[in-house]
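Journal club prep — side note

Before the paper discussion, L.F. wants everyone to see what a predicted structure for a comparable chain looks like in token form. Sequence:
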Amino acid sequence: MNPPTSDHLWQQIVWLFVLAIPVAGLAWTVTHEEVFREPREYCRKCSQSCRSLAARKFFYLFTCEYCFSHYVTALFLIITHFRLLLDGWRGFLLSFFATVFVSNIYMSLYSRLRVDIRSERAEADLTEKRVKEQVSDPGDGAEREFAGKSS
């Protein structure tokens, strides 16, 4: 299947939002997930200690999801030949920045979702700990409850 041409606007919009999903997934995985931790730590160290500016910026690329998403987007656009609104290089330029924008929205939403999940998990662990404490020492909890009512 070939990417839509400039006269199929709705298909182009669908392609934009769908193409941004693997871009976001790949950029997030490389820059945040445990599977790439060792190479990422090496790149972080090199981005801070290399002598040349070009080398520092090159290694920094693998530690920043925003930066890395530009390169992943370029790769995906070269593979798919996707152009947005216009045919030719102008359509490539529009599709490049639009795909980076949408993929970074996806990564921001995913990041917020992970924070919410972590906070809910921490709250559940705290509640479970309190329940275990009350079950292991039921007399002490009843005495505290009685002391609170009498004051």
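L.F.'s comment for the group: The CA atoms of residues 8 and 138 lie 69 Å apart. Keep this in mind when we get to the figures.
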